[in-house]
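From the pipeline queue, job 12 of 40. The input is one protein chain; the requested action is below.

Action: predict structure.
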Amino acid sequence: MKKINVLAIAAHPDDIELMMAGTLFLLKEKGCELHYLNIANGSCGSEQKSKEEIVKIRGEEAKNAALFLNANYNRSFTVDFGILYSEYLIRKVAAVVRKCNPDILLVPSLNDYMEDHIMSARIAVTAAFVRNMPNYQTDPPVSPISNDIAIYHALPYGLRDELRRKVVPETFVNIESVIEQKTEMLAMHKIQKEWLDKSQGIDSYLIMMQEMSRQIGKDSKQFQYAEGWHRHSHLGFASEDFDPMLSILNELIQSQ
């Protein structure tokens, strides 16, 4: 039986941990192979350290987090606020998509307060769309792949869209069994945690994530902690009934 490949793509170091990691831990438990990519390198993630210092620190933290998840780490391609819907980044991300050959692609919400998050989602979707096109050359060149891909959008940070409207997911995933692992993985981003501890109170970074997970669970009317997802249109990616997340995590899912 073919192993299911899962690729998580987000904007910055810690974005995957905040909104996706619980589902990733559950998919790992089910035998999936995981891949991890932040498009930007966290260059604006400090008020004290230089760009070079913070990029090195956040890169190491992201690598350690991927290792903790047992996911294959892919390096970032640009600086914070350099995530633009551009040919350069689409070709870079498309190379990762072809290399990882995912059945499941996890990406940010298309409705988020931050443009880096929205652009990451758009770039990832386009990179998946061109995966099987021989005339589309990636950077570096990687041969086209022909597999079906199901794309799932995480909830926006803060659980509201850019106009402050609450976003209710199509699918809830019960992450109660892995909330401690998710918390530990997020805590590996020490530079972010230390900065928020100083500015907002001890462990505010971790508490904020847990409160969002608890709120999603409350919205499900069934789970204590949850993550939420919207499935992207199947057109251009797979048959309409191709829904591997539902198949793999069936007993942990509630759909609207």
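Job complete. Residues 5-255 form a domain with the Rossmann fold fold (CATH 3.40.50.10320).
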